[in-house]
Amino acid sequence: MKKWISALFFLLIFGFYGSAQLSKIHYIPPLAYAENAGSTPNSGQYLYISTPSVTNVNIVITPVGGAPEAFVVSNATPKVYEIQGNPGVGASQAMLNANNSNQTARVRVDRGFIIQSVESEIYVALRTRGGGVFQAGALVSKGGAALGTQFRSGMYTSYDPASAFVSFISVMGTERGTILTINNIDENVDLVDVDEGVLGSNAFNKLNDIVVNLNRGDTYTLAVMATGGGAVPVASAYPTTNGGMGHTYNSDGLIGTKITSTKPVVVNSGSMTGAFAERGNGWKDYGFDQLVDESKVGKKYIFKKGGGVDITENVLLVATTDNTSITINGTPVTTASRGARYLKSISVSAFEGDGFTANPLLTTTTITAGEYFLIEGDMYDGNGNMYVETSQPVYAFQGISPDGPQQVGMFFAPPLKCSSLGDVNNIPEIEKIGDQVLTGKLNIISRIGAVITITDDNNANQPIGTLNVATVDGPDAVTGNVNYVTYTITGLLGNVSVFSNDELYVNYYNEFDAAASGGFYSGFSSPPEKPTEINDGSVFGYCAPNLSLQAGNMDNFTSFEWMLDPGNGFTKIVGFDNQLTVSTTIAGNYKVRGYISCPGEPTEFLDSDFVSVVLCP
Predict the structure, then answer these.
(1) What is the pLDDT of residues 372-407, one digit of tens each?
(2) Per-residue pLDDT at 434 exceeds 50
(3) Calpha distance 550→490 (Å, rounded)
(4) Which of 193, 477, 527, 528 is buried deepest, with most CB atoms within 10 A?
(5) Rounded Cα gap, residues 498 and 483, in angstroms
(6) Is residue 193 left, alpha or beta, with left meaning phi > 0 and alpha meaning psi from -120 to 50?
(7) pLDDT digits (tens, 9 = 90+) for 174-217
(8) Is the peptide bond before 545 cis (omega within 30 degrees of 0)?
(9) What pTM, to 2 d.p., does this model score?
């Protein structure tokens, strides 16, 4: 058995690399939480792994710093991998206790997971529960699409924090010799396990850069306790009417943090726990997700409301560029719009945080890189839809509250792109987190006229309008964008698949008692797979000129080309446009660049990981 795992692991490292949420490789950096009876993730932590493949797929789950474990999955038999059962203690391979005991703010070689598959691509999601039945959260891995070198973070605003509120950024390296830099954090923010006096600050009143070195699988996690950092001056603070602590520098202190690296990394960010609502410890939950590189976010988004109250169903938009402005449901946000400017944000809403006092007219309508718009739930249209356009690309996060203000989740949302094609097959056990049975729901955003079918325990590729058992709300028109409609489906059971002949954006969520969780299973652009090396018969092995490289499935790209870096930078290999195979002639790094052209949008390009080729003796 050990020999078989070793051979399988060799194939995974040297022969197979993947892309997208549906991918052959997934990186899961750890999350951070506060030790608290109502917030500790002590009610189960699980990896949910599924695949479209009807035949068996070999997978290896590697706890970073631990021994790899081999399993088999198929479309009919997803894998639920128990990280920690129910009841548990909280701290685990996937969870760090942010309690100033040196668990965070240092490079770790013993936390997080790397999940790889051989024959076919897989989905991976992390689901957890905590505080008994009161908290739940999930992230859906973005697979190869998660790899990047420039990110902005997002999490709950936590304007009225309790001691259980923790927000975090967690980064995993994917290559040896990576230099990670984290900055754009206000000097008043109090970071867990960091001596800010030693770190120092700059002339812009920001903490100095945090710079660390990462190898593949190494992680670095930065966290704040939302009650720290001191109170934001009243003139710049979000108004709190609950009689609680109010807006602190730590509340939203990590939102908009800039994360850059010299080589691709994977980033998770969020809160465990936190809130968009200003109700202190009463209306809190987990909210976290995995991000994508800044180059993959966009300027057009549609959000589907979860059915909760306005002060929890918020949309958070983090700017990547100065002078970013927004349009909501076809109407530009101007000085004729109601809202308010705060420390590092603009809130767009007809009402203040209490939901009753009218907001004044805005005096400023643009934000700078790292600042954010907070759009309150009263801006959804009558169908529970919100269409947002921005002048520059933004990171978009959606707060969702399925059935009450205490059930809150947060997703990282994909932009609208013509490249968002392909089915979701499948979301495993939609109604479960470990042994807890919840109510599973699905939101779908689709081009109008798209043919959509659903499969679950009670439906087999059934048209969305005639489902058995499950209830469908929609298609619902989107104010400001006549090209799209939305659906909400309640009562789905088991492994859920969604099939469509057009653009498809699918998020799932589940809820029980005061807990809710979920995430998007589609919508993010995917880089090409790493090329496969083919020995042309040389006795010297895999070396030029006796080596060919084979591209993977390139059907999702408008066109593609091969690129070579012989030591002075990548340039195009002439004569191999849209050719699946290229012969190597000289030593260097080879990769595939895929192009996606959408009408009215700039052409998007995505690069595969490179293959290093040496000359034969």
Answers:
(1) 999 999 999 999 999 999 999 999 999 988 766 667
(2) yes
(3) 43
(4) 527
(5) 20
(6) left
(7) 989 999 999 999 999 999 999 999 999 999 999 999 999 999 99
(8) yes
(9) 0.91
